[in-house]
Amino acid sequence: MTISPSRFLQQVLQATAPVSHPHDWHLASGVLARWHADNAVELLPALANQEGSHILLSCGIHGNETAPIEVVDSILADIASGHLPLQHRLLVLFGNPAAIRQGERYLDYDLNRLFAGAHRQHADAREAKRAAQLEQLAELFFSRAPAASTRLHYDLHTAIRGSVYEKFAIYPFLQHRAHDTTQLAWLRHCGIEAVLLHSKPANTFSYYTSYYHQAHAFTLELGKARPFGQNDLSRFTGIDQALRQLLSDTTPQLAAYQPGDYPLFRAKYDLIKHSEAFRLHLDANVENFTTLPNGFVIAEDGTQRYVAEGGKERILFPNPGVKPGLRAGIVVEPATL
């Protein structure tokens, strides 16, 4: 690793000798730390803030996406030492410890396709139990937040491949709520270069907390997935500093969000891999947000053909190696609020 793991991450990386739950102790800064599970630690400020936010940070939902784990762990270490004064209630979830230890994206099934109850359809997968646990932990955390309080969830990821926009956010489908421009301004402050506005419900963690717990929730894609020890953490300075400011109540006054601050896209449709006959007609190294020429045959699966239209569509998360029934990519198009 590029940093020495704190006692928090050391606990997650241990395959044995789990802590007893719940397990409380006070940090040097006066913050109360509470283990809820082998991958879940809650931190409570030394001085209760009745108007404070309730912030959930998740990382390691995909076990091979290590840079967000290192960023979050460094923040935890600085809270523990008192270097970073915590002003808000915080829950950190290291999503898939078994996959993190093995350096694998997942063991049986993509964890970020198992939320909002989808885990019940794949009960034999090890990730199904983990998704149910993460839902329960999030529910417990947000159930203790007053109804009018600010609820935030940032699910930190890195992508399998490169991207035209290295750092981008996915804004879950909001049903009948409006997109929050204060959050869009904060994303700009983080260094986010583009935002995808999802157009339908999903089985992702951020959709779950957004829909079921009314959190301002986002999936943040922050670069390319690399093993522990191979991350250039200087490339994550924007999100690192923004989270530190958020947690310590030192975020500067941000300019209001303006249309055109960064490109907005909307999910147009998913490329579904129905069978092993699925063929994706894109280069294996194609980057996220690559433009698709008008008339280009994106993929075929038996009689099913996906054809680009208009010349402004782009490809996101192309992955023909997924299991049948799963999404093998998203076709997106430019959008406005």
Structure, described:
By secondary structure, the protein is of the alpha/beta class. The chain folds into two domains: 7-248, Aminopeptidase (3-Layer(aba) Sandwich), CATH 3.40.630; 268-334, OB fold (Dihydrolipoamide Acetyltransferase, E2P). Helices cover 23% and strands 26% of the residues. It is built from seven helices and 16 strands. The protein has helices at residues 7-13, 66-81, 97-102, 126-143, 181-190, 205-213, 237-248, and strands spanning 23-26, 32-37, 40-44, 54-59, 89-94, 151-159, 168-171, 194-197, 216-224, 264-272, 279-280, 290-291, 297-301, 304-307, 314-316, 327-334. It has a 13-stranded mixed sheet with strand order 1-2-3-5-4-6-9-7-8-10-16-15-12, sandwiched between helices. A three-stranded antiparallel sheet has the order 11-13-14, with no helix packed on it. Helix 4 (126-143) packs parallel to helix 6. It is globular. It starts with 6 loop residues before the first helix and ends with a strand.
Q: Tell me the overall shape.
A: globular
- Number of DSSP helices? 7
User: What is the oligomer described by this structure?
Assistant: single chain
Fold-level CATH name of the largest domain = Aminopeptidase
Give the strand line-up of the largest sheet: 1-2-3-5-4-6-9-7-8-10-16-15-12
The biggest beta sheet is recorded as:
13 strands, mixed
Rg is 20 Å
Total beta-strand segments: 16
Low-confidence spans? none
Instruction: State the separation between the terminal residues, measured CA to CA.
Output: 40 Å
CATH architecture of the largest domain: 3-Layer(aba) Sandwich
Helix coverage percent: 10-25%
How many distinct folded domains?
2
- What do we call the CATH homologous superfamily of the largest domain? Zn peptidases
* Secondary-structure-derived class: alpha/beta
Percentage of residues in DSSP E strands: 25-35%
Secondary-structure element pattern, one letter each: HEEEEHEHHEEHEHEHEEEEEEE
Calculate the mean pLDDT score and round it: 93
